[in-house]
Write a structure and sequence with these properties.
Blueprint (H helix, E strand, L loop, with lengths): L1 E5 L7 H16 L6 E6 L5 H11 L4 E5 L13 H16 L7 E6 L7 H14 L3 E5 L10 H7 L5 H8 L6 E5 L2 H11 L3 E3 L12 H15 L5 E4 L9 H11 L4 E4 L9 H14 L3 E2 L13 H7 L2 E4 L8 H8 L4 E4 L5 H6 L6 E3 L3 E2 L6 H17 L3 H4 L6 H5 L6 E2 L5 H9 L2 H8 L5 H10 L10 H6 L2 H13 L11 H12 L15
Parallel strand pairs: 1-2, 1-4, 2-3, 4-5, 5-6, 6-7, 8-9, 8-11, 9-10, 11-12, 12-13
Antiparallel strand pairs: 14-15
Length: 521
């Protein structure tokens, strides 16, 4: 059997990491045996990663099929009709002569809707040839990404139903994969056994050698200009990572430490956020270094090595699909301070992973920012954000936390503020904001004491995590879904109903964050 792995690109990031970790196990475990792997995408991967994936899959040969029309729609120059034809002809070349008996297509992130013309043509081609199509959903276009709606309309998808029929394709050969149980529950309600929860791989390998860790620490000293402790955020420069909250925690708990993020900006829409953070940090002399691995990573430490060389890791994200960095910090045996995400924590707890320094929200005093100005700002941004949606979706939206409070000034979660208000809080001296906020967050006193002694707790790695998050377990789940016979008790696939249920969930009040109301995430 040949395995075709389709994605818009193979740039550094979560999807590429999933493919890199999972494909070798699929090749080893899946039956019938995979005799060739074809990576189809809109742009060529960098040479070092191509070499890495070829070595990981050896002796199975790897072929790269590059068609620019498979890339992001926003980066295309041609008209939608031209792009559709290019996708169709390229898929004909890619899948010519292949059929259900000797090929399977594993497509990543169709639910993000970065190029639904490509996804729709892929669905049609696979249906015509009866090739199994496994749609692996890491993120959703309707999860605080409503600026994507106008892009979808420009590409020819004029109604929500048209989008749903492509994202949640109902062809007999199609299967759907979710990476957390909350999303999987919605898919299974409508798809039955043609949907599965397949959590990402997290295997506990060997730690970097002490010699290598010392070398990485020397490299960090060269990059930062001193040997102060490093608190690491293993993430790209995305607003949903809520970086200002990590900076606030660092300044409170370990004032002498650097807060360092690993990845750089991955889209033009995120650049204003990164530039604003960087500019204000430089102006005030905050110990913040953004995107230390940005650019060519071939001569830089890996994320795993940086974790081992850092004192503590932080994950203050307000939105994640699986939360692989949570697991990576446990693998690295590093302390972690992290937000408790309700769609992530139960999944990781199922595998016995407990995070001692986790919290629901970080409350801040209204005395630290201009409350009335923030209300006006959020009212404007929220109205503009709602205006990006179809009318049917606006009615589903809940009430944001601060707007629900209205004129009543009260402690609010830092994550529910705009970046402007977050920076207002950060401008105050740490001891002043600490005095106002520590009583609102009693856990902070314990963490500050432990951080000063280098005694923050590390997540233990239980045996059930080794079993449940292993590559073999991943491949077995994948194989079971692939073997599911169409019509074997599956509920009829109601594409529009699936999307409607997801939208109602993602637009409820707990999912509304001002950081996500403009630009790309």
């Amino acid at each position: 059997m040949e395995l075709v792995i389709a994605h818009h690109h193979y740039r550094p990031g979560g999807v590429r990491k999933v493919i890199e970790l999972a494909a070798p196990h699929l090749v080893r475990v899946i039956k019938p045996a995979i005799r060739k792997v074809i990576l189809a995408g809109g742009e060529e991967a960098d040479a070092s990663w191509r070499l890495l994936i070829c070595r990981a899959l050896a002796p199975v040969p790897v072929e790269f099929f590059i068609e620019p029309a498979f890339g992001y729609f926003s980066e295309q120059k041609g008209r939608p009709a031209t792009l559709r034809r290019q996708c169709r002809h390229a898929l004909d070349r890619l899948l010519a002569g292949r059929a259900a008996c000797d090929c399977v297509v594993w497509v990543h992130n169709p639910g993000l809707a970065r190029n639904l013309l490509f996804v729709r043509e892929l669905v049609r081609t696979c249906e015509a040839l009866r090739i199994p199509l496994l749609a692996h959903h890491h993120d959703w276009w309707f999860d605080s990404r409503w600026q994507r709606w106008q892009e979808l309309r420009r590409s020819g998808f004029r109604t929500l139903d048209a989008v749903a029929r492509t994202v949640f394709c109902s062809t007999p050969n199609a299967r759907h994969i979710a990476i957390n149980r909350a999303d999987a529950a919605i898919l299974r309600k409508h798809c039955g056994p043609r949907a599965a929860w397949i959590p990402n791989i997290a295997e506990r390998g060997h730690l970097p050698t002490p010699v290598r860790v010392r070398g990485v620490r020397r490299w960090l000293r060269g990059q930062l200009g001193d040997g102060a402790p490093v608190w690491l955020m293993p993430c790209r420069l995305l607003r949903r990572k809520n970086i200002a909250e990590a900076l606030l925690l660092t300044r409170w708990l370990r004032p002498e430490a650097w807060l360092v993020t690993t990845g750089g900006v991955s889209s033009a829409g995120e650049k204003p956020y990164a530039d604003k953070l960087s500019t204000v940090a430089r102006h005030h002399g905050w110990r913040l270094r953004l995107g230390i691995l940005q650019g060519d990573e071939s001569h830089k430490p890996t994320v795993a090595e940086l974790l081992s060389a850092s004192e503590t890791a932080l994950l203050t994200s307000i939105q994640e699909g699986f939360g692989l960095p949570y697991v990576e910090t446990a693998v690295a045996r590093r302390p972690l301070i992290a937000r408790h995400l309700p769609n992530i924590a139960p999944d990781l707890a199922q595998f016995g992973l407990r995070f001692p320094q986790s919290y629901d929200e970080l409350l801040v005093s209204p005395a630290l920012f201009d409350w009335q100005a923030e209300v006006v700002r959020q009212e404007y941004l929220f109205r503009r954000w709602l205006g990006q949606m179809p009318r049917a979706c606006r009615r589903l939206a809940g009430k944001p936390t601060l707007l629900a409070a209205g004129r009543i000034r009260q402690p609010v979660p830092f994550s529910r503020l705009t970046l402007f208000a977050q920076l207002e809080v950060l401008v105050h001296p740490p001891e002043q904001s600490w005095a106002l906020c520590a009583p609102l967050n009693p856990f902070l006193h314990t963490w500050r004491t432990r951080a000063a002694r280098g005694a923050l707790r590390v997540t233990s790695w239980p045996g059930c995590a080794t079993q449940g998050l292993s590559g073999n377990a991943y491949a077995r789940r994948f194989g079971r879904l692939l073997e599911t016979a169409s019509g074997s008790g599956a509920a009829p696939l109601a594409s529009c109903a699936i999307q409607q249920q997801f939208m109602a969930e993602k637009l409820s009040a707990p999912h509304l964050y001002p950081l996500l109301w403009s630009g790309e995430i």
